[in-house]
């Protein structure tokens, strides 16, 4: 029943797009470039652990990981349909994309909430 | 003898050809001439078999849509002077992503069918007798849909949209903009009837917001905007149906003139 | 009456329409189409950004030595290059997203449509504020 699924999937895509637009750049900049290259003083392990132990931070990080993944899933699915003309592989692509997003979400939740 | 400009025009004759071919014509270059003038000159003076659609020659009938150097344009609104000067021929082809009947004439039955599917007419809540008088509409209510009512059905947007080319069932930009023109009209109560066609994989969900349709539209209808606005509405309707299953989706006339 | 093989066949009163095929490389045909596909592919780099965050959380969870090793791996030239490219495309996503938002929402004040840049500008301002807030939260008391 793909028809009735599209509205919530698009809503997830939209929400993920907003989260990705506002938050992913700064996270990538800080943890992918600024800290490794020493442009900014790197926070120590204990400090990071304290931050991540905070339940609010856990929820924030879960949303940061989950919603952009659903954004990717929806967008990539359509890019494959249009870019590679593989719409006949519909079932496979759907499972790969949204399945991947679900796996990422579950993984993030498990990792976050298993930190003591 | 004055300036000349070279046109490379796609020809296709179903009796003779298996696929389109190009023919070169050298026409006089006049500063005030548009592509349509050149085509008329060719048909009058050089090759009477050249076949193309045109009518008003002033950008309101929507008949003369063509590809000019790979860009969807109205023949009556595209000046030759934009293409002269670099010595290269101007390539004229029929609108992309349509079946070709002959030369520059495209098959429009498919498009017209899609247009009809979205029910592009006012569906009032109740059939009121004439004695009740006219519908009244404020300028704000008119603003809500006026932009989408400017469409001249020239199908340039269909020639620009890659999804139209990739998915023959995709309803397409002009049809969805037309549906929105009626959905947002305060006199209309037919939004529910149009939902089945619109909130469908071949309706708005096929659109990936490439935005080319809006860019090429000669009447600034912004079909891409119409489609995205409907996506937001559909998403909100879904949330509402989830939270309040028994409430009817919002009727247009109960909306204020505020942000939509 | 025999018809020669290379003459197109058509039924009387119905000409054979030519139906052009759309190539699978349609997106290479125009710079605008290519730009669109790149914009869509920026979602892959967004996903990469998420993967980085997940790996970071995993390293944190496994202890200070694992975290130190993770930090070290982030500093290798290969990973730095990936991070740079990913950052470029993620920012590309942000900019294209903010620029498209006004198109999707017909914001009206007193019946008049607000110009697009005026709808996009607050998003950019918010982006700077939020980025600053995250940076401050991460760096303070380290």
N-to-C span of chain C: 93 Å
Main beta-sheet strand count, sense and barrel state of chain C = 2 strands, antiparallel
> Could you spell the SSE succession of chain C in H and E letters?
HHHEEH
| Head-to-tail CA distance between termini of chain B | 59 Å
Overall form of chain B: elongated
Number of separate helices of chain C: 4
Assembly of the depicted chains: heterotrimer
Arithmetic mean pLDDT of chain B: 91
Radius of gyration of chain B from CA coordinates: 22 Å
Biggest sheet overview of chain B: 5 strands, mixed
Question: Biggest interface, which chains?
Answer: A-C, 53 and 51 residues
User: Largest beta sheet of chain C: what is the strand line-up?
Assistant: 1-2
Shape of chain C: flat
Radius of gyration of chain C: 26 Å
Strand content of chain C: under 5%
Helix content of chain B: 25-40%
Counting helices, strands and paired strands, the structural category of chain B is alpha+beta
What structural class is derived from the secondary structure elements of chain C? mainly alpha
The counted number of beta strands of chain B is: 7
Task: Report on this structure.
The complex is a heterotrimer of chains A (116), B (260) and C (142). Helices cover 82% and strands 0% of the residues of chain A. With 116 residues, chain A is mostly helical. In chain A, helix 3 runs antiparallel to helix 4 (90-113). Chain B is an alpha+beta fold and 260 residues long. The model of chain B is unreliable at 251-260 (pLDDT under 50). Chain C is flat and about 85 Å long. In chain C, helix 1 (31-62) packs across helix 3. Chain C has a two-stranded antiparallel ribbon with strand order 1-2. Classes of the chains: A mainly alpha (116), B alpha+beta (260), C mainly alpha (142).
What is this entry, summarized?
The complex is a heterotrimer of chains A (116), B (260) and C (142). The longest helix of chain A is centred in the first third of the chain and has 33 residues, at 2-34.
